[in-house]
Amino acid sequence: MHALIVVSHPLQHSLTHGSAAAIAQGIAAADPAHSVEIADLTQEGFDPTFSAADMAAFQQTGAVPPDVLAEQARIDRADALVLVFPVYWWSMPGLLKGWIDRVFTNGWAYDDTSGERVVKKLTHLPVHLVALGAVNQQTFVKRGYADAFNHPDRARYFRLLRRAAAELRSAADAGDGQP
């Protein structure tokens, strides 16, 4: 099994990066045949901006940008996808949202060109969301973070791509205020 762990946090010494590393170690320790790749979107300089080229690719009137093709190739090599990120304003960071917007394209992740039904193309890929927050569990629930991540709109991202919604794991009370 090969897992792609995508991490989105600007600070290398954050709980987010530490969690991604711990997940990678756990996967590798579970079976010597398992492999892991960590994609650090910040360090790699991924551009989350949905550009005119991305729109042309979405409309299938232009080529998919090379950086998007490279990300898709990473996912194609993976047997599991794990997204590790801090909770910002009841959601994922803009960098990760932009990665999803740009990478999960029509024609590759799904096909919306034939008839009324969307054809899901990543049904084989388990997706795990690991959302980290710097509040305790009571505040996580009180402020609506849990509801925001479990809301049907949030799950729609991955329902579009798979048969079932992605699995969400949240970790409230991440410590020193820096998830």
From TrEMBL:
<dbReference type="GO" id="GO:0003955">
    <property type="term" value="F:NAD(P)H dehydrogenase (quinone) activity"/>
</dbReference>
<protein>
    <submittedName>
        <fullName>Glutathione-regulated potassium-efflux system ancillary protein kefF</fullName>
    </submittedName>
</protein>
<dbReference type="InterPro" id="IPR051545">
    <property type="entry name" value="NAD(P)H_dehydrogenase_qn"/>
</dbReference>
<comment type="similarity">
    <text>Belongs to the NAD(P)H dehydrogenase (quinone) family.</text>
</comment>
<dbReference type="InterPro" id="IPR003680">
    <property type="entry name" value="Flavodoxin_fold"/>
</dbReference>
<keyword id="KW-0560">Oxidoreductase</keyword>
<dbReference type="Pfam" id="PF02525">
    <property type="entry name" value="Flavodoxin_2"/>
</dbReference>
<dbReference type="InterPro" id="IPR029039">
    <property type="entry name" value="Flavoprotein-like_sf"/>
</dbReference>
<feature type="domain" description="Flavodoxin-like fold">
    <location>
        <begin position="1"/>
        <end position="150"/>
    </location>
</feature>
<dbReference type="GO" id="GO:0005829">
    <property type="term" value="C:cytosol"/>
</dbReference>
